[in-house]
């Protein structure tokens, strides 16, 4: 029995910041952002959006009325949780109108959370093949204004429907994984902005890739050319470029050139959204699927998931027959319709999202998303469906 991703949905806000303009405002060479980290635009998340609304808006792209009775597991991977107790999944299931006979919970392990959820959903469907699971990676990346990490911010959510006999991608074999207790990135309790040792984190990312990829090759007898392409966790897209260069370093020049060219399709969306933390790998996967003209049925895609702290995992998925019918172009349309804002507007929005006051009511008239955060009432977050 094949198990895999039946459909993928993505959502981010309708606002973005031009990275070249941010660079100039920060007295930096624009190429430091455009080429040095590989980012062109940054999604800016307003106060009326958080991981709950982002996740619900992403899920609404793929959860149709005929699926309501089949979904009985909702998992949210995030490191931007809104509550120390209640899961984002509980809020999202309610907003979507899913049935009550359902399991909902949240997973935290930095940017690896959605992959953990995906693997749990795979195991669940294995013994419940008549059901479907909804796995969401939703985050808002914050490092602070005028910090080194500022140009790697972003936000959004990716939602994946996991099922038997999937219409898009099927798992191909098992995973290889590796973990260590390291302090490359962390966010202490009470902090809204992350702490990161950037150079160290980059080195750990690549070190973990070398562990899991070598283990995968040894375990399954795989070679690079078994894969049509790869998708990587992309905290910034230059990181993925380093990853693919690491994998192809011992290959002939023509093979290296081919995989480097293919990599560009996998980072097209991430370049203009920024860091999604738990959703970054899967936005890269979606970018590859919707922008690559070389993919065909039964092609194998290698995926590398990394979460600081740290956890790495490598696994493979195969494109199933008729996968093209699932790719609707909604993501391209969403990103094309966004509105550019100034650096000053971005800074104002950023500052407003650092503190949420009790009994605060939000102006949702400028937010045209289906699901929005309307107010905070006696510390309770109140969400509404606008259409």
Automatic annotation (TrEMBL):
<keyword id="KW-0808">Transferase</keyword>
<dbReference type="GO" id="GO:0004421">
    <property type="term" value="F:hydroxymethylglutaryl-CoA synthase activity"/>
</dbReference>
<feature type="active site" description="Proton donor/acceptor">
    <location>
        <position position="79"/>
    </location>
</feature>
<dbReference type="InterPro" id="IPR013528">
    <property type="entry name" value="HMG_CoA_synth_N"/>
</dbReference>
<feature type="domain" description="Hydroxymethylglutaryl-coenzyme A synthase C-terminal">
    <location>
        <begin position="259"/>
        <end position="378"/>
    </location>
</feature>
<feature type="domain" description="Hydroxymethylglutaryl-coenzyme A synthase N-terminal">
    <location>
        <begin position="2"/>
        <end position="164"/>
    </location>
</feature>
<feature type="active site" description="Proton donor/acceptor">
    <location>
        <position position="233"/>
    </location>
</feature>
<feature type="active site" description="Acyl-thioester intermediate">
    <location>
        <position position="111"/>
    </location>
</feature>
<comment type="similarity">
    <text>Belongs to the thiolase-like superfamily. HMG-CoA synthase family.</text>
</comment>
<feature type="binding site">
    <location>
        <position position="275"/>
    </location>
    <ligand>
        <name>(3S)-3-hydroxy-3-methylglutaryl-CoA</name>
    </ligand>
</feature>
<feature type="binding site">
    <location>
        <position position="143"/>
    </location>
    <ligand>
        <name>(3S)-3-hydroxy-3-methylglutaryl-CoA</name>
    </ligand>
</feature>
<protein>
    <submittedName>
        <fullName>Hydroxymethylglutaryl-coa synthase</fullName>
    </submittedName>
</protein>
<dbReference type="Pfam" id="PF01154">
    <property type="entry name" value="HMG_CoA_synt_N"/>
</dbReference>
<dbReference type="InterPro" id="IPR011554">
    <property type="entry name" value="HMG_CoA_synthase_prok"/>
</dbReference>
<dbReference type="GO" id="GO:0006084">
    <property type="term" value="P:acetyl-CoA metabolic process"/>
</dbReference>
<feature type="binding site">
    <location>
        <position position="29"/>
    </location>
    <ligand>
        <name>(3S)-3-hydroxy-3-methylglutaryl-CoA</name>
    </ligand>
</feature>
<dbReference type="InterPro" id="IPR016039">
    <property type="entry name" value="Thiolase-like"/>
</dbReference>
<dbReference type="InterPro" id="IPR013746">
    <property type="entry name" value="HMG_CoA_synt_C_dom"/>
</dbReference>
<feature type="domain" description="Hydroxymethylglutaryl-coenzyme A synthase C-terminal">
    <location>
        <begin position="175"/>
        <end position="251"/>
    </location>
</feature>
<dbReference type="Pfam" id="PF08540">
    <property type="entry name" value="HMG_CoA_synt_C"/>
</dbReference>
<feature type="binding site">
    <location>
        <position position="242"/>
    </location>
    <ligand>
        <name>(3S)-3-hydroxy-3-methylglutaryl-CoA</name>
    </ligand>
</feature>
